């Protein structure tokens, strides 16, 4: 009972602090190695959030109001579901389903629906283009994610994330399946439409699905994207970096450190890579990355049989 | 009334500014982008302050009013060296460039702290066209299709698809004149199928741009080549900033602008070039298209023409440049990639020429014809070539089209320098 409450508390704490941590880390990554004004790095995200809370939420001409207001909250809810699946220790986990890998897969699939809804419901041109683009991207990365995660689950012979971690006791999946984590990071950039895969909310669309959003709705949308980044990083740390496994430190600290490592890697990629042209992105996904994910799966299968 | 802690915290935030550029020189952009207190945003919905730079022609004032009314409350407008619209009460007007950033920050803080009222709307909050609720579903058409609700056609597959034969509903809309990914003033009526451009009709050309004062001076008297070439390199770096910002490479984009601001004969492009290559932009972004034929290239002139293989540069006719052994650099394929590579090569070349010319204080010899960074200026300055987009853009995806526009620089050059901004 206490552990259930503690794990729930962990989810709530990450939900509350995740956006701040992502904003601070992103600013640090963006300004490294020159550094920025300390007050801007630490206080900037808070003052920006305060500004968005004071700004009015605008209207467009005849939007689908319910869907438009609901989409950011739904994306945040999906990120919360992802967080609930991250095991902080063998027992400290909010939702230890035997099919938690499948549930994560459904989070990725539903994210496509929610992001499309966000762009479509504004009833404006640029958000609509962003929404269409995201659907094309979503279909591409979900297949990669599926194969890569099945590969991670094979050594555990289970779709339960706690079992996936336990199966990495002797060797982490990042070493056992070297293609897995790099491919999964691409999925993460797609799922959160971050950096090179930010096709939905891009600068060429003046913010894409969020181009017409202001005030608290925009704040929720940005927070949801940040929490999804954290949730994805937690799942990646679980599936490929051995989750709570590690010497000297308590399990939850290891999960935190590994999650922050993956998060920093994603933010760094976001700062240093240009947005991939949509056509090139889809070509890359289907012609290069999807076959590579097959190879990863076959590799994982052969290793599992051999073991 | 006590100001809430939330508003006090909001008052300390970076100021989100949506700029509307009238006639201006590019130096102001660096001032704004490199300020740690200012954030230039791409959508008016994301701004707290609307900054109007320079005079806005009467033909574009309706467009400005539309942008103005898109800013969510509370917001304010700052006018920099331009006459405010008559409809506004108590406009905030700034003439000195060194006061602009402070004014933007102060305006935002006053808004947040409730010391300034939000600007009032200029247009009525109603659809631009009346509702035409005909048809079974009240959408204005027959059955489930067609109609012109609110005066705009429903998305219908009226045209064949240009790409793969998969016909989607076409969507027609007007973009501009102050869309950030387009040159200021450019307004077009666009028809899309999915995100493929079916047609692009330019309705209003881009506003003329002002070059650095040294280019205007070069038309009147010999000017130091070092100064002229540094101004040329600076111009190209600002264009590079725009392209990189559009590509989502904000960090490297700022580096380019920072380099432009501090440019001297001791500057080197190597670091920036290395960052660009390592980022993979030449492979990941849409750079293979946008090929100009010879006629188009000749019409544009300047780096765009040289990137398409035209060996034309007025500096070849200048005796001082001949002394420096100047030869224009050219590419062959005229694509987006070739244009960006051309710009980088010309920045390097300009820095090299400036270094060669500086010790002897070498001046230009020809004032009749000046090669500007936009193109040749002999009888008249480079002219607006926005209409070329009507031929170049159909068939391209949105991302390709915006990348092409950023690489092209089709703006007219203003005949007079006006005032320098900094």
TrEMBL record, chain A:
Keyword Protein transport: no
Chief location category: membrane
InterPro entries in UniProt: NADH_UbQ_OxRdtase_su1/FPO (IPR001694)
UniProt entry keywords in alphabetical sequence: Membrane, NAD, Oxidoreductase, Transmembrane, Transmembrane helix
Enzymatic class: oxidoreductase
Membrane-spanning parts: 6-25, 70-89, 101-120, 132-154, 174-194, 226-245, 251-269, 281-306
Molecular function terms, GO-annotated: NADH dehydrogenase (quinone) (non-electrogenic) activity
Keyword match NAD: yes
Compartment(s): Cell membrane; Membrane
EC number: 1.6.5.9
Membrane topology: Multi-pass membrane protein
Pfam families: NADHdh (PF00146)
Classification via PANTHER family: NADH DEHYDROGENASE SUBUNIT 1, NADH-UBIQUINONE OXIDOREDUCTASE CHAIN 1
Entry similarity comment: Belongs to the complex I subunit 1 family.
Name of the protein in its database record: NADH-quinone oxidoreductase subunit H
Protein's organism: Modicisalibacter luteus
From TrEMBL, chain B:
Region (Disordered): 117-141
SUPFAM superfamilies found in the cross-reference section: HydB/Nqo4-like (SSF56762)
Entries under Pfam families matching the protein: Complex1_49kDa
Superkingdom assignment: Bacteria
InterPro entries the record matches: NADH_Q_OxRdtase_suD, NiFe-Hase_large
TM spans (from-to): none
Domain (NADH-quinone oxidoreductase subunit D): residue spans on this chain: 266-357
Name of this chain's protein: NADH-quinone oxidoreductase subunit D domain-containing protein
UniProt lineage: Bacteria, Pseudomonadati, Pseudomonadota, Gammaproteobacteria, Oceanospirillales
